[in-house]
Write a structure and sequence with these properties.
three-stranded mixed beta sheet; 11 helices; alpha/beta; nine-stranded mixed beta sheet
Length: 341
């Protein structure tokens, strides 16, 4: 009998008892025998631990001593996990019974694919793609992330317009399926990110290592979203702007970074001033603080990080143009309008 690859599904939890109550039953119904379900708790102060011990004693629990955030939290937890594949799964995701097997099959058939994601749709509107990954992540020439099915805040209804599994730029961190060997080889998620866009940085580095990232359209999950930091939260705004610029500094070739980074500062500045005039002072302050952090980080001595220095554009999921121009100037809302019209 052929050995079935082992899969460790690891949920990083922080004060998410309400999500565990709601979504763990879906995971329990997963039809993949070689799956181990693990909850890594980021020092929750709610009743998460008591709930798990009382209701799910069969689920392995890894207790972290403090809230390390998404990136370092997963790195610390996965040091204690042995499996052929890891799934980094948000606690607010509803999975379908057959969500896991197609992703295992995809990677087992092609050793050049290091990671993939399922199609990610909205939990509240299951016919619509969800922000955090949709039908596969892309990045534009200035580093702005978008996805098949999601451009900025506009999420498309799924009408079957993206039916095929395909190479992408990044797989959404809400449900990231990855070879454990590649996770370790790459150095894992960068702890400096804490949360937000760390999965994009990881996928970029993995592509520069010579691997590919895919979306597996035979697998579908439903993401609630906004579980830890709600949309519009100034901390979330700060992390998104800061982390995106750090990612560009780490991965872009120097000869393109020297002109793209100043241009990004200008575009971010326009967004900041626009928000200030709209009465969103906290949004303005968050972007200014993000820029100031990046400047100090660039001038510091630790920007080399713990990762191998390799720079370049993505081999897939890379749009050379400007998604800002296409969306805000030309009025194109959909991925398909940008690429197929």
């Amino acid at each position: 009998m052929t050995r079935q690859p082992s899969v460790a599904v690891v949920i990083l939890n922080w004060n998410g008892k309400h999500h565990l109550e709601k979504f763990l039953p879906f995971l329990e119904a997963t039809g993949y025998p070689s799956m181990e379900l693990i909850v890594a708790d980021n020092a929750s102060s709610d009743a998460s631990i008591d709930f798990l011990q009382a209701n799910y004693p069969q689920i392995r629990l890894i207790r972290l001593p403090e809230n390390y955030g998404f990136a370092k939290g997963y790195n610390e937890a996965l040091k204690q996990v042995e499996a052929d594949y890891y799934v980094l799964l948000n606690s607010d995701v509803e999975v379908t019974p057959n969500w896991l097997a197609p992703m295992v099959e995809l990677l087992e058939q092609d050793a050049t694919i290091a990671a993939c994601q399922p199609v990610i749709k909205m939990f509240a509107d299951k016919n619509r793609f969800e922000y955090a990954g949709a039908a596969g992540g892309w990045i534009d020439g200035l580093g702005y992330p978008f996805a098949r099915g999601r451009v900025f805040d506009y999420c498309e209804i799924d009408t079957g317009q993206y039916p095929d599994s395909a190479p992408i730029g990044w797989a959404g961190g809400a449900a990231l399926f990855i070879r454990s060997t590649v996770y370790r080889e790459s150095g894992g998620l960068d702890p400096i990110f804490f949360a937000h866009q760390e999965e994009i940085d990881l996928c970029w580095r993995i592509q520069l290592m010579g691997y590919r990232i895919y979306v597996c359209t035979a697998s579908v999950v439903y993401h609630l979203g906004g579980g830890t930091l709600p949309k519009g939260n100034e901390r979330k705004v700060y992390l998104n702007f800061r982390n995106n610029l750090i990612m560009l500094c780490k991965n872009l070739p120097y000869h393109t970074l020297v002109y793209k980074l100043p241009l990004r500062f200008v575009l971010d500045g326009i967004s900041a001033w626009k928000s200030l005039f709209a009465g969103q002072r906290a949004y303005f302050i968050a972007i200014v603080q993000a820029h100031w952090y990046v400047v100090r980080w660039m001038l510091g001595s630790k920007k080399g990080n713990l990762f191998p220095v390799k720079r370049g554009n993505l081999t897939a999921g890379w749009y050379k143009g400007s998604i800002v121009y296409q969306h805000f100037v030309k009025g194109k809302k959909k991925f398909s309008e940008i690429f197929f019209s």
